[in-house]
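Example 9 (inverse folding). The structure is encoded as follows.
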């Protein structure tokens, strides 16, 4: 397979430390160019990561006919503009999560990519890891009985970095959009349904432009099943998921960020614990390969772009609930 030629729009840390190395280590992709708002920063990043071409503007990168796909790790409020501009330039798009600031924007982006005949994928790398296929198989086998509830947590403490883009309200900052998206998307994926209502309580910080620095939520699903979750950017690090059934439960100690030194996930049936081993794999490479095969072979993406629109509807409801301190139907 001829490798997909990727361009990177922006020099964010997630790009430099995770996504670019992931594409470079993938079977199907290579990073051929990177762009920043200034040429110096683009050149510096290109040199660090062995990327052949550096551009001093995003427009120059999109004008490069050699680039087939772009990854967009820009602040959330810029996702819509540059996804649509990339689509109009004929580039396939991997856009960082959350896809947009709201469902309406997300729908515009999906429509623009469909019109241009290009792929649009939301960068939820964890979903491409085979451990979630195994988890789904365990659930479907009936080993843990009927699902009664899911609990997810994703928290970290970066509050001291006051200039961080995560702390700009108008730019789509806040913990719900940054890390709450993970347990929310995981519950939707595992339950294979959409929630009907959201209730969220949040801590909005005056020191951080009134974004939600911590949020605790409840999403209502069918048959009395719920996702309870918490997410935060001013709390000790946690990265866990638990699926509770009538006969047992599944614990995922490192649910969204994989770590070579950590066990993968466990199944607990009454008092007996069974460890399920899954080899360590680079989730970012798996993500790039899924997109690469879709571009080259026309394979359907495991997660269609419209999934991002549905996820944004849930996120909007969560933020509205936190701001109004009330239950919001979705």
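The amino acid assigned to each position is listed next.
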């Amino acid at each position: 397979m001829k490798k997909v030629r990727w361009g990177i729009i922006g020099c964010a840390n997630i790009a430099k430390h995770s996504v670019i190395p992931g594409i470079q280590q993938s079977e199907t992709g290579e990073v051929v160019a990177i762009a920043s708002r200034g040429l110096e920063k683009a050149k510096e990043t290109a040199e660090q990561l062995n990327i052949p071409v550096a551009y001093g503007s995003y427009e120059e990168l999109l004008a490069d006919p050699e680039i087939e796909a772009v990854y967009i790790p820009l602040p959330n409020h810029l996702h819509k503009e540059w996804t649509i501009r990339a689509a109009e330039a004929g580039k396939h798009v991997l856009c960082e999560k959350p896809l947009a600031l709201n469902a309406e924007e997300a729908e515009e982006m999906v429509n623009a990519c469909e019109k241009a005949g290009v792929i649009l994928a939301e960068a939820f790398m964890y979903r491409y890891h085979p451990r979630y296929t195994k988890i789904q198989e365990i659930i479907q086998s009936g080993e843990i009985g009927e699902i009664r509830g899911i609990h997810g947590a994703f928290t970290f403490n970066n509050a001291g970095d006051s200039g961080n883009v995560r702390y700009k309200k108008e730019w789509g900052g806040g913990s719900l959009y940054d890390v709450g998206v993970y347990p929310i998307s995981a519950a939707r994926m595992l339950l294979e349904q959409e929630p009907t209502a959201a209730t969220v309580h949040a801590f909005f910080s005056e020191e951080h432009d009134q974004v939600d620095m911590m949020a605790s939520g409840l999403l209502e699903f069918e048959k009395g099943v719920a996702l309870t979750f918490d997410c935060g950017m001013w709390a000790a690090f946690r990265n866990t998921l638990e699926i509770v059934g009538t006969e047992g439960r599944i614990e995922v100690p490192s649910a969204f960020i994989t770590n070579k030194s950590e066990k993968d996930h466990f199944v607990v049936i009454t008092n007996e614990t069974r460890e399920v081993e899954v080899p360590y794999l680079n989730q970012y490479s798996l993500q790039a390969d899924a997109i690469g095969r879709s571009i080259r072979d026309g394979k359907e993406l495991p997660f269609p772009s419209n999934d991002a629109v549905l996820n944004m509807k849930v996120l909007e409801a969560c933020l509205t609930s936190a701001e109004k301190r009330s239950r919001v139907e979705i």
